[in-house]
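Recall from the previous chapter that SMILES is a line notation for molecules. Here it describes adenosine-5'-triphosphate.
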Amino acid sequence: MKRHLLTASALEKVLSNTKTLRVNKEGKIKVSLSMDGQSIIKCFYFYHKGFYRRYCKTIAGEFIANASQLLARDILTVFPSAWYRCLESHCDVIIYPILQGQTVKEIIDETNDFTVLSTLANYIAKLHHKNIYFRAGHLDNYLLRSDNNFAIIDIDNLRFSLSLRKIAKNLVFIYRHSLENEQKYFLIYGFNRFLDNYFDASNLPTYKKNIIKYWIKYYLRRMKSYLARMSITV
Ligand SMILES: Nc1ncnc2c1ncn2[C@@H]1O[C@H](COP(=O)(O)OP(=O)(O)OP(=O)(O)O)[C@@H](O)[C@H]1O
Ligand SMILES: [Mg+2]
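With both inputs in hand, we obtain:
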């Protein structure tokens, strides 16, 4: 996809006609919704200069490359229709269509129905089966659609290689992220129950499941000491 340059005033104009959904720590717009409600405008700010900025991979570039690879693997996701760079604002902007559906977090918040976590565990097993390591895979980045299929968003932080250790890390991440954000979902549903759902859905041989369980214990121990340092009690 070709990247087009934007001036700061052109970028301001693009963003002024949108509804801000997320801002970053500095208060800059991160995710916006277009006026017609049909598109997402996502901004990635970069802080490196010169050679590095010119020649190295950018987060927006990773996002677009991952979208192509996911679609080739039959995984539903967003595919950007445009990519802009504003050098004055140190920002890349991508635009992609809104997808029908609700994130897992939104569903639980709205319905108080935790069984969606079982459907999610099945889907994560499917991603892992396809060697997809969705590192940003937390409850607000999985979108459940009306046909009960999932789509994933926020796909810049994703790899197409996976080990048994990374599977464990990925499963514990979703739990840890939830606790860090004061979400009680897994405490109510049961993280072990979620893991059972995952192992039931995965077609891995028993010895591989046991290795994953070993690493899960390892990451849970690390998670507990990490949360304790942040004064979060489980
Ligand atoms: N294509 C899309 N279709 C539907 N909703 C979307 C789409 N993209 C983003 N959203 C909504 O906007 C929210 C924020 O988007 P996104 O996850 O891309 O931003 P983020 O700030 O990077 O999130 P994170 O906290 O995961 O880093 C999502 O949780 C979702 O509710
Ligand atoms: Mg997100």
